[in-house]
Amino acid sequence: MDKLIITGNGPLDGEVWASGAKNSALPILAATLLADEPVTIGNLPHLQDITTTLELLGRMGIEPVMGEKMSIQIDGSQVRDCHAPYELVKKMRASILVLGPLLAHFGKADVSLPGGCAIGSRPVDLHIRGLEAMGAEITVEGGYIRARVDGRLKGATIFFDTVTVTGTENLLMAATLAEGTTVLENAAREPEVVDLAECLIAMGANIRGQGTDTITVEGVERLHGCHYDVMPDRIETGTFLVAAAATGGRVRVRKTRADIMEAVLAKLEEAGATLTTGDDWIELDMGGRRPRAVNLRTAPYPAFPTDMQAQFVALNAVAEGTGTVVETIFENRFMHVQELNRMGAHIALEGNTAVVTGVEKLSGAPVMATDLRASASLVVAAMVAQGETMVDRIYHIDRGYECIEEKLQLLGARIRRVPG
Ligand SMILES: CC(=O)N[C@H]1[C@@H](OP(=O)(O)OP(=O)(O)OC[C@H]2O[C@@H](n3ccc(=O)[nH]c3=O)[C@H](O)[C@@H]2O)O[C@H](CO)[C@@H](O)[C@@H]1O
Ligand SMILES: C=C(OP(=O)(O)O)C(=O)O
């Protein structure tokens, strides 16, 4: 297993670019299953989760054609087997996103239940209930969701009890080929849902209301090919900005978007950072200062994203003062806390709340990555720690950060990968 070795090396300084968003690329790749013609997706990030998705599509009979500049062409009409096996779904929960498209286009889908994961139990009951409301017959047997529909799915009004991102995306995709109108109420408003909707519209879908909590879809009989570029990754962008703030540095992130990052940028300003933004870049300047601790509470977009929680816990860990961080989305998303405390942080956990009292210096230590964003928080902490940190199990970080060590090296970090 590869490891990252990081030595604290003072303020980060320089320019880096944001890759395509993982959480947008994954549903968009699944959406290609809905079309009768090849769809070309550009600005795909080079990530383990993308490789897993392509393997999953390959098992279904699809032969993706690699193009230039991280683009790929996928022909949904090549599907021969509507099956997502356990050994791939267990590597990546987002595999559940093939359920809606397979059922809507081919009338059947056998998709392994994703099961729980490190950050929480993460059920998919709302995905299943929504598809049933659209006329699907669904059984769960032997750990598999077996979904069937005779003819087309039927449009329906679906209210989500809980705001769910992939749940909204699955039903949005299914609704594009359903007969009649589907209304998704209490839908997720995340920018990645909007990006997926825009891609579906480019494929000929009839969707309105994306980005609000009510999305309306008029089903069409078929979807066609298109070229679509994935939006920039706001979580990767935020991670670089937090790393800059924690080290007292100055970093410009290019090829990104400030307009979808308001909650995160506001917290960085509260922490004492000076932010400047342009059309497609964000610059953070900490001017060598130590950050101030911030209080935050995670919630669905446009509130503060749970995927940035761990990185802000690391920021608070070296800040002046005490910050309270409340996690409201996932029940077990504080596994970085123990590891950060092993590096000398002062973090007390009380239920879904972490009370973080900043210390002047952390000290390098061997630590273990437990999930994707927890790993990112350890990398941030390691860059401000005295001495060397070894982050083990970095396959988690490779799921969601493209070339993490090369990008951080560009900013002056002392970080290297040791193959395991
Ligand atoms: C690939 C992808 O886009 N992943 C993101 C997506 O995950 P994901 O879509 O899996 O997360 P959800 O938005 O579905 O989860 C939100 C909450 O709803 C609950 N729930 C969800 C579905 C369901 O059927 N029943 C149910 O109870 C979950 O347990 C959780 O407590 O949104 C999360 C919340 O922003 C992010 O952290 C993930 O990075
Ligand atoms: C939790 C995340 O991803 P996933 O839903 O793919 O596990 C994440 O991106 O932080």
Automatic annotation (TrEMBL):
Q: Which domain of life is it from?
A: Bacteria
Q: Does the keyword Cell wall biogenesis/degradation apply?
A: yes
Which amino acids does the record list as binding UDP-N-acetyl-alpha-D-glucosamine?
A: R93, R122, P123, V124, D125, L126, D307, I329
Give the 2-(S-cysteinyl)pyruvic acid O-phosphothioketal positions (modified residues): C117
| Catalytic residues, chain numbering | C117
Note the InterPro entries from the entry.
Enolpyruvate_Tfrase_dom, Enolpyruvate_Tfrase_sf, MurA_subfamily, RNA3'P_cycl/enolpyr_Trfase_a/b, UDP_GlcNAc_COvinyl_MurA
Q: Residues in domain Enolpyruvate transferase?
A: 7-408
Q: Which UniProt keywords apply?
A: Cell cycle, Cell division, Cell shape, Cell wall biogenesis/degradation, Cytoplasm, Peptidoglycan synthesis, Pyruvate, Transferase
User: Which of the seven top EC classes does this enzyme belong to?
Assistant: transferase
May I ask which residue range the UniProt record assigns to the signal sequence?
none
Q: In which pathway does it act?
A: Cell wall biogenesis; peptidoglycan biosynthesis
Q: Which residues of the sequence carry a binding annotation for phosphoenolpyruvate? A: K22, N23
Instruction: Kindly list any coiled-coil regions of this protein.
Output: none
* Function noted in UniProt: Cell wall formation. Adds enolpyruvyl to UDP-N-acetylglucosamine.
Q: Which NCBIfam families does the record associate with it?
A: murA, PRK09369.1
Q: Which family is annotated?
A: Belongs to the EPSP synthase family. MurA subfamily.
Q: What protein name is recorded for this chain? A: UDP-N-acetylglucosamine 1-carboxyvinyltransferase
Encoding gene, per UniProt annotation: murA
